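Methods — Computational structure assignment.
A single polypeptide chain was analysed. Its primary sequence is given first, followed by the predicted tertiary structure written as structure tokens.
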Amino acid sequence: MRDHYDFSKMKGRKNPYSKYLKQPVTMRLDRDTVAYFKEMAKETGIPYQTLINLYLRDCAAQNRKLEVHWAS
């Protein structure tokens, strides 16, 4: 290996994976919901935040709409 590298002549280029990067967000979730995904994470070996992201991504891909019926 060299003792010194000259990076001044390098051409910059855009990260080709930047559109796949995740955006940090803050969400308030019920404790039961978090516990559910944490339990699923233990079973699958996939981090619970990844599971939540996969579920939401699937909902978005399938264009699912939430149906809420409030009790009167």
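Note: The radius of gyration is 21 Å.
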